[in-house]
Design a protein that fits this description.
This protein has three helices and five strands; from the N terminus they run αβββαββα. It is α+β, with helices and mostly antiparallel strands. Strands 1-2-3-5-4 form a five-stranded antiparallel β-sheet. The structure holds adenosine monophosphate. The site of adenosine monophosphate has 12 residues, from loops.
Length: 138
């Protein structure tokens, strides 16, 4: 299957719909997941167009992984999480729902079960504060 630019992350990258942005440069946009699996769940979205890992340009992957690491450290620092889960889904049977490559940076808190993938919507005011704090820690 080929990349379809009408996906929701494509729209966010083009500024057509709003997002709780944490960081943006030539390589990627970082934003809060609005249906977080835990407090501080962030998405790192490479700007290069691909559906997922399987059709991504290796050069785009090389460029984005250092940012994923930086974001993971900043999220852990800001949230006080005990660990960070990195997740990335390829095609619908594997759990992918938005078909533009992205990496989930999910804080894990000792003794707290993660919420379901694509569960309840988070409070916008809380997401705005987290986005600002994570941006400051980057
Ligand atoms: P995936 O299932 O890996 O494709 O993940 C898509 C993620 O995007 C899910 O975790 C959703 O909660 C999240 N999501 C969907 N729409 C939005 C949106 N408008 N802003 C931020 N996150 C979103």
């Amino acid at each position: 299957m080929s990349y379809d630019p009408s996906n929701i992350f494509g729209k966010i990258l083009r500024g057509e719909i709003p997002a709780h942005k944490v960081y943006e440069d030539d390589v990627a946009l970082v934003m809060m997941d609005i249906f977080p699996q835990s407090r501080g769940h962030v998405l790192v979205i490479p700007k290069a167009a691909s559906r997922n890992l399987l059709d991504a340009d290796p050069a785009a992957l090389s460029a984005v992984i250092p940012l994923v690491q930086q974001v993971a450290k900043a999220v852990k620092h800001v949230t006080g999480a005990d660990g960070i889960r990195l997740a990335q889904f390829n095609e619908a049977p594997a759990g992918q729902t938005v078909f533009h490559l992205h990496f989930h940076v999910i804080p894990v808190y000792e003794g707290v079960a993660l919420g379901s993938h694509g569960g309840g919507k988070a409070d916008d005011a809380e997401l705005a504060v987290l986005a600002k704090d994570i941006a400051a820690a980057l």
